[in-house]
Amino acid sequence: MDVDLEELIAEAARSGWAVEPSRRLVEEIESHIVVPLSSRLRAVLGRDEAEQLARVIAWERCLELAAAPPPDGVSWGYLANLVRWRLMDVARATVLHGRRHRLMHRLPEPPPTHRWSLGPHLEQIASELESEGLPAAVGRRLIRVAADGPPYYRAAIIARLRRARATAAQAEGLAWLLRGGAGRPAALARLALGQPPDEVFNDPGVRRWIRAAAGRDQRFFGGPSRLGLRRAAGVEWLTAAREAA
Questions:
Q1: Which of 17, 94, 130, 155 has the most CB atoms around it within 10 Å of its CB?
Q2: What Cα–Cα distance (Å) separates residue 137 from each residue in 31, 63, 134?
Q3: Euclidean distance between the first and final Cα of the chain, in Å?
Q4: Model-level pTM greater than 0.85?
């Protein structure tokens, strides 16, 4: 019999995370999240490392979901997707690390600023949003909403963000940062491929996405398409007409 995740989290939270209800939640995490981990993730990260990371990530997200449950509720599939997203981010970083020149491995890794919070690449995007004036808590919440799929295509990300009360421009900007589009890879994808953060975030297109996601460009309508330019021009004309009235 499948045990409802929402009930387990609620029971553990009501008890103050007492031993017995917490143990039941951990046992179900083991069977629903850890055991079904993909063989690819186990191969890249190592079996023990992948399983332990999955346990830590799943438990942290359960604590967060207890404090701020999403309006549509939670399920085991929902939690599994959150864990898989984070593990994939770690796996990409691990693969890229292994491809570096052998002399580079003698250099120490920089200490992480957050312990398994958003993942290294998403943390960099969150930091850029904060540098543009978006409060850290807001930026991290919107990134979590955008990343909590599936599906991960751009329209679905925008819809999730709009339900979370992001503006249209913020939703578009974050969707481009995390998902990208035809001919324009996402900032997240470029970071995962090993491009230096300075190169990625100094790209004029990426800077425009950052400004929009931070709420500084409310006329942003997406990529540099003719339709987007016409819509932006329409907003400028309407704004000028209102000011003249």
A1: 130
A2: 32, 17, 8
A3: 66
A4: no
Per-residue pLDDT tens listing for the chain (245 residues): 467 898 999 999 899 888 898 889 989 999 999 998 888 888 877 888 888 888 888 888 888 888 888 777 788 888 888 888 788 877 776 665 555 445 444 445 444 443 334 567 888 899 999 999 999 888 888 988 887 766 677 888 888 899 888 999 999 999 999 888 777 888 988 887 778 999 999 999 999 999 999 998 888 876 544 444 444 444 444 455 555 55
**DSSP letter string over the chain?**
-PPPHHHHHHHHHHTTS-HHHHHHHHHHHIIIIITT--HHHHHHH-HHHHHHHHHHHHHHHHHHHHHS--TT---HHHHHHHHHHHHHHHHHHHHHHHHS-GGGGGSPPPPPSSSSSS-HHHHHHHHHHHHTT--HHHHHHHHHHHHS-S--SHHHHHHHHHHTT--HHHHHHHHHHHT-BTTB--HHHHHHTT--HHHHHTSHHHHHHHHHHTTS-TT--SSS-HHHHHHHHHHHHHHHHHHH-
